[in-house]
Amino acid sequence: MTAFDDLSLLRAFVCIVECGSISAGARSLKLPQPTLSRHLRLLEERCGAALLRRDTHQMSLTETGQRFLADARIVLGHADQADQRLRQDQTTLSGHLRLFATIDCGQFIVTRLVSRFLQKHPKVTASLGISNRPLHMIQEGCDVGIQPGRITDESVIARPAGMIRLHLAASPSLAARFPAAEKPGDLKSWPWIGLAGSQFWSAKEIHLSAPGRAERSLPISPVLVCEGVTSIREAVLSGLGVSVLPEWMIKEELLAGKLVRILPEWSARDLPVHVVYAGHRLLPVRVSAFIDFAVDYLTRELAAPEA
After folding, report:
1. Domain end point (choices 66, 91, 116)
2. 157 and 180 belong to one structural domain
3. Per the count of CB atoms within 10 A, which of 14, 32, 102, 182 is most buried?
């Protein structure tokens, strides 16, 4: 071991020098005087040189001791600063958040969520990664993720944060081309647009349910499969096909008559939303605060009444 491996020995040496004697240093550190004397001897052994000249009347630094004192103070200063930063990280709302979300939720709901949190806590900054393949984002260093759909990473903690309601929607022009649908089976001949990514919903079949009726599974053969729900919405608006879309994404289009609900009494399975984070990490206060904020925000946002 070197003389700089044990910070307690460095603190003992500096305290002795600053207090003027071993006995005064022992009182300051609340240690027995023999214990502090052993610390000094051990430090000098590791240095391979005497650091202090001691006699019955006074104590003074050797030349090596003077140089070592300056270095010890620098090392202890850096250690104290690092400890202070660490404590601030654990006790104050400051620092940087590394977040991720799926594409469409991230561009809309999560961006608003993060903006609200940063406005509330101006000493926090954040980066937001957006991907529909978020499996290893936590392992790659992200703090928190907002993830709709099925959770496939068993290493994370996933806190429920509401449900996304899903509706069948089409453009009025497409709906006018086909006889009015009265049951799910009537939609077999309609052109469909599907979503890639099995963690959301299947691009090969749609599960529909209605009050008082058994769930129906409707096989589909999409004319277009997209990775993003925003792209699906645009394709549906253009009249290309019918699809399942989140209620929060099409409220304005439904109100404006640009889209219509198909089989409005039937709905696809609600999509759960989770706030995910690593369970084995000690969370800084900014991370735990964001998790609580996100769960509350999403639960309220997604529970808004239908348009």
Report:
1. 91
2. no
3. 102
The two tokens of residue 15 are 């305290």
The reply to whether 84 and 227 lie within a common domain is no
Same domain, 179 and 255: yes
Residue 178 covered by a domain? yes
Instruction: Let me know if residue 147 belongs to a domain.
Output: yes
Number of structural domains, the chain? Answer: 3
Domain edge (last residue) among 91, 109, 135? 91
Domain range enclosing 187: 166-269
Whether residue 199 is found in the same domain as residue 149? no
Written as tens digits, the pLDDT of the chain (307 aa) is 787 888 999 999 999 988 888 888 899 989 999 999 999 999 989 999 999 987 766 788 999 989 999 999 899 888 887 777 666 666 668 899 999 998 888 899 999 999 999 999 999 999 999 887 766 677 778 899 999 888 877 778 999 999 999 999 999 999 999 998 888 989 989 999 998 876 666 668 888 888 888 888 888 889 999 888 999 999 999 999 999 999 999 999 999 999 999 999 988 888 899 999 987 667 889 999 999 999 999 999 888 554 4
